[in-house]
Design brief:
Blueprint (H helix, E strand, L loop, with lengths): L15 E2 L2 E2 L10 H10 L8 H7 L5 H4 L3 H10 L6 H9 L4 H12 L9 H16 L2 E6 L4 E4 L2 E3 L3 E5 L4 E7 L4 H13 L3 E7 L8 E5 L1
Parallel strand pairs: 7-8
Antiparallel strand pairs: 1-2, 3-6, 4-5, 6-7, 8-9
Helix pairs in contact: 4-5
Length: about 220
Amino acid sequence: MTSRATSLRYPEGTKTVGTARVREPALPPMTAAQRAIYKKTGNLPAASAGFDEIADGLDAGPQAKARSVAESAATAADIGKPASLGNAIKRLTKPVGPREAAKKALQALGRLKAGAMNKTEASYALHLEGLKRSGEVAWFRFEGMKFRLADNTFYTPDFAVMLSGGQLECHEVKGHWQDDARVKIKIVADQYPLKFIAVTAKPKKAGGGWQIEEF
């Protein structure tokens, strides 16, 4: 007598039949993104899905790799929400333009920490030190004062300076002044009874030194 193997089908989710344990079907290798989709939808993603490579960063092009961690986290949070998976995929696959990529690269470099001088400010600090030794300046401190302009808006001038006669001034030092910086110093000068001074470094071809503008 010939024995035949018989395939039995059981309702999905059945763990045991009698004393026998029902083995779960073997699943193909999946990425983290594929597993999240499978758990939420029960559908196995296609093996060649380009989304999987982008989501996990495997063999992805430079534009896809430029996606930020925050965007990836937002995408993961979207998986499983009604009608949001498509939006999550669009967010991941949206190309990054060269301007945006350059902006992200600059932001990654970050700014100087509070209390750290750039080259122009350090050069002006030496100038103030010379004035202090000559008796024109009694005291100065880098980022020594902070002024409130409005709710959650503050202004910290580069140098708080006290002259030998006791007058207190605030000096803002720039290699080149932008319009927004000039507007801010004008606003703070209108609100506080102190002398605010805009200091610009003169180019070497113009003899160097400092150009002073009072507000």
